[in-house]
Design brief:
Blueprint (H helix, E strand, L loop, with lengths): L1 H6 L6 H4 L4 E5 L2 E4 L4 E4 L2 H4 L8 H12 L12 H15 L7 E3 L5 H16 L4 E4 L8 H5 L4 H5 L8 E4 L13 H8 L10 E4 L2 E2 L5 E2 L2 H13 L3 E5 L23 E4 L12 E4 L19 H15 L6 H22 L4 E7 L2 E6 L2 H13 L2 E2 L1 E3 L5 E4 L7 H19 L1
Parallel strand pairs: 3-15, 5-6, 5-7, 7-10, 10-11
Antiparallel strand pairs: 1-2, 2-3, 4-12, 8-9, 11-12, 13-14, 14-17, 16-17
Length: about 425
Amino acid sequence: MDVFESLESEVRSYCRGWPAVFQKASGSRLYDEEGNAFLDFFAGAGTLNYGHNHPLLKEKLLAYLADDNVVHSLDMYTVAKRRFLETFQNVVLAPRGLDYRVQFPGPAGTTAVEAALKLARKYTGRETIVSFTNAFHGMSLGALAVTGNGMKRGGAGIPLGHSVPMPFDNYLDGRTPDFLLFERLLDDSGSGLDAPAAVIVETVQGEGGLNAATPEWLRGLADVCRRHEMLLIVDDVQMGCGRTGPFFSFEQAGIVPDIVCLSKSLSGYGLPFAVTLFRPELDVWEPGEHNGTFRGFNPAFVTATAALEFWDGEGGKGMEKETLARSEQVEQALGKIAAAHPEAISGVRGRGLAQGLAFTEPAAATRVCAEAFDRRLLMETSGPESEVVKLLPPLTATSDELDEGLDIIASSVDAVLV
């Protein structure tokens, strides 16, 4: 590993907790260059909902490349883009009665967020964006301005303004704040709060500690936005594409955001891909006003189309139901682990197949992940103090694979706490 340490920037992070050189991957497992198999409960930070090298997606991708089809196209029309848009409309939007325009802003979740913030400000003529405590929306400057993590914000090197944080659901010592204070600030010309262009929210704060908003809180937020003519942006970069059961994580609450950000598992294969969805009347962009070199990555169109066809076809028909069943399996197992260590573990957090254990001593979570790695299970921590052991297994993980990983977690917790 000398070349990594001598040439790669100190900013590298995941490799520090997982000191292995990985070479191959299939399904729910990664293999290092020595052939050791690791069960993957990280899934590319939620990018690999369909697992590694899903055979159906791989077949479509290889056939596309072998036939000398277009790879790079900026925002030109291509056959691959047409097929993706038609499939996305037929599989995702139309069945849910959603009328959204689709923008391809660039290759990552943070670019989808940047486009959403710029569009909200352009449409409303306002500057302020309301975000929430412990939010994470990306590492570019606009996205950082609506991110809560102090360490990440500090890396910007400049003031991050034109945003106002509000308490997320269940933030205040276990109590859920209502929206009376928020509305009082909006109504009071002396509050110092400029009329916001939009509110941006994650339904489950993946990087912020797996804090899950209740449907009631989300509906209340949507009502406030509607009454005060603020746009509601849902960042579904990590929790979308079926991670919580339905394709969009906000479906459970019965709300319809004005703007939605998607990335990570949208390509289904780990290829860079992001979209920003918004109501047609918000489409006030001038041609080329927001662009990017890699906003038309055709291999990602191909695998994303194949992933949606799998989701909608016989292979994935029960995927939402299976994800919800698997989430109950995970929640029950984590609940038993937490009950066995009530002084050290404050509870189980998250929703769907994004769940974790919250530790009262943050360092314990890091040690548990290290013990799990020694037992060949990959997990990361989450939360402002890295106090949560976070599980993001592929949605395609079998019940047996989940049991295997959950047993490793239990033994890793025992090794740290007993």
